[in-house]
């Protein structure tokens, strides 16, 4: 995206870069309380699983001559009301308890995580529907439903715990949804979509690993609840065979004889308390480690001021420029309009943009910040952010309108028909995955290749973009390479699908001058080799001169001039183009001051009815503000949205 959007992406990616893969595991290792909790839980689970090997007695064996005994060598934790060994009953009882906890946690995760991912990633209607469903489930009292289940399936502890888990799923769903909502705004998710990866793959590969921390925290917290619930049911005698050892049953038994032998409550009570505290501590530690270790009613142009209703789809009769072309364009854009939707009002941001891109051609899209270049690019890629709507237009590729293709069909075309590289390539790479893996994934998607073939092609692509040590770079994570190298990787990724058109949004702005020249040279070479067309978004007239065949100048959501590159420098036919050129440092004549353009681009809500540049234009007259100015053919295959092209021509000839 161009400057504005990229700055936001840049900032986010810097934050993410500090989080290295496995950082929160290392964070966990650095927190002794969490480690102790993990150790205690592991020991308890192991001891219970191995109960038949280590328990000193049969948990059901009675010794009526030795009831309610305190700890002794033969019975380290004493005996119960029937003389059964307490330690053995705790060990065997723990098996059932941990199995129940596992069933509850599995149910909560199996339902809550996928639905949370889908709600957060898909957003909109799906999110709303799942949100409503969660509200309904959360309103059901867990104990009542579990009692109903136990009435239908008496003493069926598995059914009770799965039901409890299902009722807890909305809590996990909400946490995962929140995390996924943030992740879906990350630039590397957009990049993965542009590369053509399916939604399922993106969720599994790039979103799920990011929500792992919150999911583990939720799972440990829920485990503590599930343990309490299970022991509660056993305490009430609702789930287990009365002779079977259970922690809850042991507490119930101890409470009946508390006056005679208070000790009996300690072993079962303590083991329950220790396990719950261990789950809680572990959850807290993982959360800390994850955080510390580480997305009025008038038609447009029909009057000044106020918000206006966006124009409906109305591809204007855009005259086509240039000499007659025998080839068909790679892409034809007609009347593309995008609006910001706010309640029932819409404000146009891109207003009837139209142009062709021919095979092998590089078209520069130039204009000041806020003119609508990035929104245009995102609309072509069908990646408009939330709140922005395409309100009209078509994007023809071959004989189909890309904007009307079903989402799934278009997803398959991303990366092959259209590829994309941005100003901040590092932001578009997943910081947790090595470059080689990211490339293999995209190659496998496009070529249907197996692991070995995908790896070979990934290395070949890295070599194609002049990376000297592809094997080392493939093994690196994005934060381990320089910005210039990352842009080469991004270009290699874009080439993986052999695209017919590459949309490059300020691809060199974030790079230093030497690297800029190298990347531009690389793009030129690759274009020569592959024949792909490039739509280059830039502020830099030097880059336009270096790389482009044709220029589109954009102002306040409209194309205001279109011409061949050689014409734009010699004879700009729109005062805005002329102002941009005169104020550009790289084009100023030696010793001459830069001529800064007065004023600024009007906000989309303030676009005037007539010429949108009139307020800043030295040539503007009353006729310029009276009515919308059409983009007109001004001869020699050039287009201009200006009533003063004759004067401009005369002035340029004189100057
Ligand atoms: N997500 C959004 N929500 C609301 N308005 C937006 C959004 N994205 C862009 N805009 C608005 O749309 C207009 C065009 O923005 P866009 O980013 O396309 O401009 P640009 O020409 O690419 O500028 P830059 O070079 O600074 O990126 C601006 O007025 C901008 O504020």
TrEMBL record:
Chain positions covered by the region annotation Disordered: 293-329
Acyltransferase found in the keyword field: no
SUPFAM superfamilies per UniProt: MetI-like, P-loop containing nucleoside triphosphate hydrolases
Pfam families according to UniProt: ABC_tran (PF00005), BPD_transp_1 (PF00528), oligo_HPY (PF08352), OppC_N (PF12911)
Family named by the database record: Belongs to the binding-protein-dependent transport system permease family.
Domain ABC transmembrane type-1: 94-283
Chief place of localization: membrane
Keywords carried by this UniProt record: ATP-binding, Cell membrane, Membrane, Nucleotide-binding, Transmembrane, Transmembrane helix, Transport
Residue span(s) of domain ABC transporter: 333-581
Transmembrane parts of this sequence: 98-121, 133-153, 215-238, 263-282
Annotated localization: Cell membrane; Membrane
Keyword Disulfide bond recorded: no
Residue spans of biased composition, Gly residues class: 293-306
InterPro entries on file: AAA+_ATPase, ABC_Ni/Peptide_Import, ABC_transporter-like_ATP-bd, ABC_transporter-like_CS, MetI-like, MetI-like_sf, Oligopep_ABC_C, OppC_N
GO molecular function, one term: ATP hydrolysis activity
The protein's name in its UniProt record: Peptide/nickel transport system permease protein
GO biological process: peptide transport; transmembrane transport
GO cellular component entries: plasma membrane
Cleavable signal peptide: none
